[in-house]
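ingest -> validate -> predict -> emit
validate: passed (alphabet ok, no gaps, 356 aa)
predict: started
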Amino acid sequence: MKKTIGVLGSGNWGTTLANLIAQRGQSVLLWSRNPSTVQEINHSKTNQKYTPGLKILDSIHATSSMKEVAESCELIFVVVPSKVFREVSQELGTYVSGDQILVSGTKGIENKTFRMMCDILKEETCCKKVGALSGPNIATEIIQGDPSGSVIASHYNEVIERVMGALQQPLFKMYGNKDVKGVEIGGALKNIIAIASGIATGLHLGNNSKAFLISRGIVEISRYGKFFGADPKTFFGLSGIGDLMATCYSEHSRNNTFGRKLASGQTMDDILKASNMVIEGIYTVQAVQALAQKFNIFMPISAGIYRVLYENANLKEVIRDLMSVRVTYESEDFKEDVSHITHMLVNKYPIPEHFL
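emit:
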């Protein structure tokens, strides 16, 4: 068995993940396209652009050779942005063999095909033993030693056991799950709700408003996931509500920060130009909106964020529209809408003018 573990992607999460693995005493090969990043990691044991303050452990060696990673590692984590995930997987596919384990650490949906990351790994490589790593994993908090945990989802027990063995430690708890689709959907869609939460924070809305948003957000994610065959219970675990809560409340969350900046009046283009981080939610919402329209999935929060980002909708008008969504039972186990009288009462008392 090859003892070295590979990590493709030297960004914020990829570097943090490599360090977590190294803390278990494992040797890690960390792949980066950027030669200067490779040199910095190997000579200075730092990655100032993405993980300032993190001292990279000596058992981590950086490389720009995908072939070296594939030939040296039985277990490989792929942690690159969703928009280049297929490209990286295609290159990886030219080197790996069918008995290797590939794990996605990316939370997103491919825009053109609407494919999840594990689907892409299986399509572009000969590997069948794939998995998805997801959970409330704000890299900055993990770096400073805060307790956290994650979920590894796979149809293969071997994948779950190998990943748990590679990452489990006193301050990082690992759990297994067989619902790959649910874990991936939860991780991807929570970024949309986090943008909405950031907007709410930026508009100085209180905790009641944010709790309302997050609660309805997890219902929306669950509705979407159930349509595509996920287990609704998955969304009430670490990769669902856990990841959602962390991302919606953390000041270190990229998507949350993006929402706050939008609320301050900055444009999406200006925010992206000033950031060296990938904001997955702005791409995920495009895919989700397209699929929701195609299959008639009720996704009001996602639709609202899409309107703000790509149709120049006014933030407060979108909030007003969200609060005007039809009144129904909280649980979707009840199919009936509430009575016409309730609709009349709701319409009689519109949202206060000062809020708009």
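The beta strands are 5-8, 28-31, 60-63, 75-78, 101-104, 130-134, 148-153, 172-177.
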